[in-house]
Specification:
- By secondary structure, this protein is α/β, with parallel strands linked by helices.
- The protein has two domains: about 5-100 and about 280-295, no CATH class; about 110-275, Rossmann fold, CATH 3.40.50.
- Helix content is about 40%, strand content about 20%.
- It is built from twelve helices and twelve strands.
- It has helices at about 10-20, 25-35, 45-50, 110-125, 155-165, 180-195, 205-210, 220-225, 245-250, 250-260, 265-275, 285-295; strands at about 5-10, 40-45, 60-65, 70-75, 85, 135, 170-175, 195-200, 215, 230-235, 245, 280.
- The strands form two sheets. The protein has a six-stranded mixed β-sheet, sandwiched between helices.
- Helix 2 (about 25-35) packs across helix 12 and helix 4 (about 110-125) packs across helix 11.
- The radius of gyration is 21 Å and the shape is globular.
Length: about 300
């Protein structure tokens, strides 16, 4: 009797690594799937392939792409390796963790050790301070108001200048985004109107270490800011919203009032978000976490 297939749809470099048995996380996913009596097929990820498999029997796992049928799931790193998520949706704000409440209880010593370890691992021994400015890490499509956002990014910058009338504001362009002439013109026009606004490039870690707080739609820079105990204002939906000042929930004036006085449990949150709610591929419980995520997605494991 032929076993039910599970197809992994992977980009070329990742596919090569998985085929060579050199990827720890996907090796563990494979083990969980095979222990459930399913077989694994490795395919190169493509739009045509993701559509074609919708009519085939079995299950599909798409790396970073949205599921195309109800037996498909998406798999993606949770901002940094070795933390992963397996989800029904490619939209992070619809992930399992986004709908959970951050518990106020936990082991504070373990959380502190965890946060310190990962801060040093990711950012070295960089010191932190408060240099009196607001950091806005921009993403793409800055003149467009998308459905998961409360306003367009260019209007977010204007709102920051309006609600924080004292601090300088540094907005940085994302190194992997393409900004057209109209985008640059809109930023330059706003900077001419507001001398407190500067437009820069990159240097995320430097700005996270130095800023007073972060304002973003839903950039992962704000999540990284938690390692520096930097609060953030969110203008869009995202999975790490629990300890942020959310414009969608509070409105702009209340969110900006809240961000300057909030003191959330950053270490506890990072420990919960990564070690409890994500799949840590380096931990012995990774297989159990993978199986739980696949079962949430409706797979027979």
């Amino acid at each position: 009797m032929q076993k039910t297939p599970v197809r992994f749809h992977l980009d070329p470099d990742l596919l090569t690594s998985v085929r060579a048995g050199q990827h720890n996380f996907f090796a563990k996913v494979t083990e969980v799937v095979q222990e459930a009596g399913l077989t694994v097929e490795l395919l190169e990820n493509s739009p045509q392939g993701r559509i074609a498999v919708a009519t085939l029997p079995g299950y599909d796992l798409f790396h970073m792409d949205a599921p195309t049928h109800d037996r498909a799931l998406t798999v993606r790193r949770v901002y940094h390796y070795p933390f992963w998520a397996i989800e029904r949706s490619a939209q992070r704000w619809n992930w399992h963790v986004a709908g959970q409440d951050f518990p106020a209880t936990g082991d504070p010593d373990a959380a502190t050790r965890f946060a310190r370890f990962w801060r040093k691992r990711l950012f070295g021994n960089r010191s932190t301070g408060h240099d009196g400015y607001v950091y806005i890490p921009l993403q793409g499509r800055i003149r467009e108001h998308r459905s998961f956002q409360t306003c367009a990014p260019i209007d977010m910058i204007a709102a920051t200048l309006r609600h924080d009338p004292v601090r300088p504001v540094i907005a940085t362009l994302h190194p992997n985004e393409i900004y057209d002439a109209a985008d640059i013109q809109a930023l330059e026009d706003l900077a001419r109107q507001h001398p407190r606004l500067s437009i820069a490039k990159g240097d995320m870690a430097q700005h996270l270490a130095a800023c007073d707080y972060v304002v973003t739609q839903n950039s992962s820079a704000a999540f990284n800011g938690y390692f520096f105990a930097k609060p953030c204002v969110l203008f869009a939906r995202i999975d790490f919203h629990h300890i942020a000042a959310n414009v969608a929930d509070l409105g702009e004036p209340a969110a900006f009032a809240e961000v300057t006085r909030m003191r959330p449990d950053y270490a506890g949150y990072l420990h919960w978000f990564w070690q409890v709610m994500a799949i840590n591929a380096g931990r012995p419980e990774a297989e159990a976490q993978i199986a739980a995520a696949l079962r949430r997605g409706g797979w027979p494991v």
